[in-house]
Each structure stands twice: as structure tokens, then as C-alpha cells.
Amino acid sequence: MFGKFEQNPGSIGGFLLSHDRGRVMGDVINLRQARKQRARQDKDAGAARNRTAFGRSKADKQRDQSVADLAERRLEGHRLTPFAPDDDGKTPA
Fold it and tell me: What does the alpha-carbon distance between residue 81 and residue 63 come to, in Å, rounded to a whole number?
């Protein structure tokens, strides 16, 4: 083993080998700790994706609901005939 050997940045565990005046030296990495660290990083990345997808505050949800309610009231206000269900609970044709 001559020269310098390095591990890929994305891989887990292993040895980093280098040639130093005829000796081969390596940094030993605890594979269990490396796996746990990688799992934590993956979990954190997933949590960040979920925060962007679902992380809306209560105020944001209420504002969106009030905007939708206002739009519905405006639409109802422009109807030619008022909307009222028939006696049997069905909408008029």
C-alpha cells in the first residue's frame, strides 16, 4: 500500500490510510457510532422537510381560513337567486 488512501465523504466507517515513511497508519472509526450519527442526520433532514411541508402556525391557518370564508361570502353575495336547500335537504336544480 503506497500513497494516500481516503474514504469517500458519504460512506460510513472504515479506515483512512496514509503512507508515512514506510509505515501504514489508519484512524480507526467506531462503526456503531458512525451509523448512529448518520441515522441522526437522516432523521434531522426528514424533520426539516416536514417542517417546511406541514409547519404552519395557527395564525397562518386562521388567516387562510378567513380569506377562504371571505371569498365564499363574496361569491354567495353575487348569486342571482339565494341558495337554500329544498325541504328534502337536496340542493335546488
Answer: 29
